[in-house]
Amino acid sequence: MELVFFTFVFAGLFVFLLSSRRSFSPRPRLTLVTTQTQHGETTHYELEGKCYVVDGDTITIGYQNIRLAGIDAPELDHPYGKKSKWYLVSLTKGHRVRAVFHGEQSYTREVATCYLPDGRDLSAEMVKAGFAIDWPKFSGGKYRHLEPKDARKKMWRADARQKSRRLPHN
To answer: 5, 95, 110, 168: which one has the fewest Cβ atoms less than 10 Å from its Cβ?
Structure first.
């Protein structure tokens, strides 16, 4: 009789732990950060949490879709698109990512510079690995020096997309 009782208690505890597993993982944390600069104070938002990778330049933390700032990665149906996504998955897996928002939007995504816990910039890591290219219109050329020699040739569709979206000069 005691064995049956302990079996049911153990099974119930096991089912409870499995069903409430999400409550044990830390929730995303949104923070308002104010920093002092020589021109006064600046305020921005940061979101930190586990992320889900959508494609090579888009992640989701909590319910927030985030576009990695300053880079362009191939779409999933373009050459290297799936490899780009899976490289970003390998970078972020098991880590809490910190997103620093720029106050800009790209379609339904907020633009942010995203960092791994060790301080590495996800955009820079994607460009260095050859799975994304610098988008000078938005980065000011910040990541261009990190591009491997053949990156634009390899990701010709992303490069062509950038050229077609350039604004005409006045």
So the answer is: 168
